[in-house]
Specification:
The structure is a single chain. The protein is an alpha+beta fold. It has 3 domains: 181 residues, no CATH class; 58 residues, Winged helix-like DNA-binding domain superfamily/Winged helix DNA-binding domain (Arc Repressor Mutant, subunit A, Orthogonal Bundle); 93 residues, no CATH class. 45% of the residues lie in helices and 18% in strands. The strands form 4 sheets. The chain has a 5-stranded mixed β-sheet with strand order 9-10-11-12-13.
Amino acid sequence: MNLNDIANLRLQNQQIAGTKFTSPKEIVAWMGAMQAQDYAMSKWAVGVRLPNSTEKTIEAALDKGEIIRTHVMRPTWHLVAAGDIRWMLALTAPQIKAGMKSRNIELELTEAVLLKSRKVLEKILRDGNHSTREELIVALNKANIATDENRASHIFMEAELESLICSGATKNGKQTFSLLEERVPATQPLGRDEALASLAKRYFTSHGPATLDDFDWWSGLSAGDARRALEMVKSDFVSEVVEGKTYWFAQSSFESKESAFLLPAFDEFIISYKDRGATLKSENHKRAVSSNGMFYPTVVVDGETVGIWKRTIKKDRAIVEFTYFTKPKPAAQGLIEAASVRYGEFLGRKAEMP
């Protein structure tokens, strides 16, 4: 096995190169969690893995509460299947909250303030009253709770980590928050060891081949917990040492074939690994990832990131423009054009490439 084999096996395991699944919630559940701070791109992250899906397909799953968008790891926004949200939060929230403590002190967000905020949020959101961020900020301000200087983001995130609120149904084209207990039916809680093992198994099955360091980065767990989690499940996987690093993955066969994909910003194919060398050459890293951590939409050919792309929406058209690190061969160019057409279909628009 070499680095290109790793990249192509990841395309397969991440369901990008093909899938047996037929619904958005199945894709998200398989992946465990999918980074989602760019909302529009997070929908395409599911769509690129689900043939014949459209943006409306993904939005419907979110509106129904089959998929939840919330803060659950590292911390940043992620898409998580509704059935997984509670045990994942129970596992990851304590460490995220500990990491937020010093900033909360700077913002004067004491436990008393956060408790008062949660009471305000619960009162407003009760009985299915899904509310926008702006509506909730008005309510917090009326209760004399300051929301400036990014306090609102911390208040909402703390409430998410307390399993109080989560994403709600779209209202007038805007995203909302809802009460988690009303949005997602109660599920059987997992013990800590069971949750650690479940997260590790989900990651190495869907993201492998990957290293322990990759899992540690993706999960946001402590190094000790990540190591313990892998120890509990590693008998379910095989491992290979490539360029001095041990990669774990589910035993599977794969056939490397010519392929091209337009992947969204912050896609799991790139962002979910501490070492991205198998899919993104070091000399191109700064062209695909900005200095402040912005991951651009990427063009991936035969497992290698060969460029970035951007879209411009004009009525019924989606104009797709490319900046290549390496000029694609004619055969690959045809595959890229086909991938662009697929993206246009996902949006319900005609794709155009200048």
